[in-house]
Amino acid sequence: MIRYHHTLTLIDNNSAAQAALSKSLQLAKKTKAKVTALKIDRPCSNLLSRLGLIPKNALDPMLFVKKLLTQYQRQGVEVEIKTIKNVKDHVAILNETNNSNYDLVVINNNHHNALLNEWVPSCEDHLLRDCLQPVMIVGNKSWQSQGHILTALDTSGSNLEHKQLNQCLLDDSQQLANLLDNDIHLLNCYQLDNWSMSVTPEKHYSSESDQKQLLWQRLLDSAKGRQFAQDHLHLEQGLPDYVIPHIAHQCNANLLIIGAGEHHGLISELKGHTSSVIVEQLKCDILAIKPQLH
User: Are 25 and 15 in contact (CB under 8 A)?
Assistant: First the structure.
């Protein structure tokens, strides 16, 4: 499970909303963690400000940041601000995580242009691929008490390592559910094996109903020992890119917890992977956990 001793987040230079910083502080208050906030020093590029038509302090997000930090510091949260030179967001985060011990990285979901994002990786894409720590990608939607966490499992793999990852996702989900006073929905989406076009069909062909029954049993086995209502277990046919956002919206999830899988090959490196596609479609927050951590 995530230890929640030290969280790294970014200060948003372009908005007073500060969703990533705000939610980092909310979690830190509940877990007694320290928060390190990176402020990337960039030259002001706002045309109206440079022309003197808008005072600089009217656009300064640090005014809200200082107020937010003061509020949580009074409640006992330890906060450190690090100001660094003008570098890309993901470079700043990766450099910092390589030099210090962090348990969690929290960043804003900037919802980039889908077409552009296919070929120009966003900060979220870089961190999903390269950051070893769990990455929480958040928006402005507040966490609702007595809300829902959606955990996406992949039960197609039957090896021990895969089962262990699923159990770790469930452990992390339960930990956050307790912290946020939420319940958990489990989702497994799948594609049926279709041998109708196969030149050499498998000898032990399974019907669609047999395959679905096997997947349903694996989902039940994953949930064994944990208290889940029947309507909190979802087995859906389709691609994760479309099924996961649909179910997250359907159950009005506060947070999606997903394993950020490893992908190989040139096209995968260029075009990203399932978790980055889902990030662009979701309105709720996402916690992506790397398999190698477990």
Answer: no
CA–centroid distance for 166 within its chain: 16
Q: Find out whether 158 and 41 touch, Cβ atoms under 8 Å.
A: no
- Give the confidence band of 265 by pLDDT, cuts at 50, 70, 90: very low
Same domain assignment for residues 287 and 232:
yes
Nearest to 287 by CA among 136, 90, 126: 136
Q: Would you say 284 and 255 are in contact if contact means Cβ atoms under 8 Å apart?
A: yes
Higher-scoring residue by pLDDT: 54, 165: 165
Cα 4 to Cα 126: distance, rounded to the nearest angstrom: 22
**256 alpha-carbon distance from chain centroid:** 7
Number of folded domains that form the chain: 2
Note whether residue 168 is domain-resident: yes
CATH value at residue 35 = 3.40.50.620
> Could you list the residue range(s) of the whole structural domain that residue 199 is in?
148-293
In what side-by-side order are the strands of the sheet with 104-108? 78-84, 34-40, 6-10, 104-108, 135-138, 285-289, 255-259, 148-153, 183-190, 233-237
